[in-house]
């Protein structure tokens, strides 16, 4: 089939997951206080800024898809894992609402960010409400709550590191990888773990699927960082060179800054100014990251992480069609364009 076949199959899997969690996700959001529900409905693409029905991009639903598939892969049903799948999607979107405020991002999913429309305070509160609803959904399963809350704490720690990196000039690649592991991998690992728990998987299967999700999560973040510099705005829904505007210390950037190359040194001089980069400077910074080997390192490391993820998946001995669907999603991570 090749990458195109994988992408088409993964697209069908993600559409299946979106349809399966859609009603429960809407019910959960609509059960929030009206002011919070309105902001969340806008953020999920269900309504426009005036509260009229819309059909905007609601995101990839990768995390809930992994939850549903992991439940099936250990012999359970996707339906039994719907509450857990909705919970991880709520937590993911809680983090996006807060991230956009902290990063000052003006666009997400091809339209203005929620804080840009409703104000920063309101968007933060809407994110808080999503987190509360997520924990409420798992309240009957203590083990599930523990898995999710630990992932949230890691995510918060990762975001804190990410913010502190912006003020520092000495960020090393290993600590940048650790940050990405917490900020992105933790929740994707938890998504897989919850699927195994709700599907009745063994402790060994849950551990292997968690490791699968962690490796996949790091690959996902590596590719996300590539798209944050070189992604096509028409496809990503974000501005060109969006990560460079705020001089973000993303993985390709740190790989370039610590490369010991002339291009890395020129990039450091650009990055260590105390202001956002202009259009021409961002374009030059992107050239320098590539010249210093940051783009190649990131691509190579993402491919390694996907290979390790697939090995962990095989060790979990997944059953049925879900096993192949998980492999397709894993391979999609490195070939995606948004």
From TrEMBL:
<dbReference type="GO" id="GO:0008299">
    <property type="term" value="P:isoprenoid biosynthetic process"/>
</dbReference>
<dbReference type="InterPro" id="IPR008949">
    <property type="entry name" value="Isoprenoid_synthase_dom_sf"/>
</dbReference>
<protein>
    <submittedName>
        <fullName>Polyprenyl synthetase family protein</fullName>
    </submittedName>
</protein>
<dbReference type="InterPro" id="IPR000092">
    <property type="entry name" value="Polyprenyl_synt"/>
</dbReference>
<dbReference type="InterPro" id="IPR033749">
    <property type="entry name" value="Polyprenyl_synt_CS"/>
</dbReference>
<keyword id="KW-0479">Metal-binding</keyword>
<dbReference type="GO" id="GO:0046872">
    <property type="term" value="F:metal ion binding"/>
</dbReference>
<keyword id="KW-0460">Magnesium</keyword>
<keyword id="KW-0808">Transferase</keyword>
<dbReference type="Pfam" id="PF00348">
    <property type="entry name" value="polyprenyl_synt"/>
</dbReference>
<comment type="similarity">
    <text>Belongs to the FPP/GGPP synthase family.</text>
</comment>
<dbReference type="GO" id="GO:0004659">
    <property type="term" value="F:prenyltransferase activity"/>
</dbReference>
